[in-house]
Write a structure and sequence with these properties.
With 164 residues, the chain is mainly beta. 10% of the residues lie in helices and 38% in strands. Strand 2 and strand 3 form a beta hairpin. The longest helix has 10 residues.
């Protein structure tokens, strides 16, 4: 398999999956996403989406059903429904799959108070699919549940993720 790379375009609220070839890259998937409502930024506690070069540090949720809920990276046994949502007002649902990111740029998104991994920055499914295409997250990159399940199967731990 050729190397793959993910680009997240904050301005366009899109995620692009590229296949790398010796003579250039080929776009193989494009998805709508939702990045942070508070914009781009790297500082811990900012609720912003961190920029720069990252990699997938861990893949969590293989084989889970669509809309399976996770808390602290563990499946809760819940399957999100509008009724369950109503019973949990204000809950930031992390659904279906988690691609946990770690920064690759010391001082920018790695280490200290700017560490993306320590900030628990993920690519994950959301209950707010209707908000994709607009900034709405608490820092993570939210996707449609079917889309994140597909992406999960197309990438590996170590896949580069560029956020700009």
């Amino acid at each position: 398999m050729n190397a793959r790379v993910i680009d997240v375009d904050i301005a366009r609220q899109r995620l692009y999956l590229w296949e790398r070839y010796p003579d250039g890259d080929m776009l193989i998937r494009e998805y709508p996403v939702s990045t942070a409502a508070k914009g781009a930024g790297e500082q811990s506690g900012s609720y912003c989406t961190p920029r720069g070069r990252h990699r997938i540090a861990q893949k969590i949720g293989a084989g889970a059903p669509l809309f399976a809920a996770f808390k602290a990276r563990e499946a809760t046994g819940e399957i999100w429904t509008p009724g369950l949502d109503a019973e949990n007002p204000g809950r930031d649902w992390i659904l279906t799959r988690i691609l946990w990111l770690e920064g690759l740029e010391p001082g920018r998104n790695q280490g200290g108070t700017v560490d993306s991994h320590d900030r628990y920055i993920y690519i994950h499914g959301t209950n707010e699919e209707h908000r994709l295409g607009t900034p709405a997250s608490h820092g993570c990159i939210r996707m449609k549940n079917a889309d994140v399940a597909e992406l999960f199967g197309l990438v590996e731990v170590g896949t580069e993720v560029r956020i700009s």
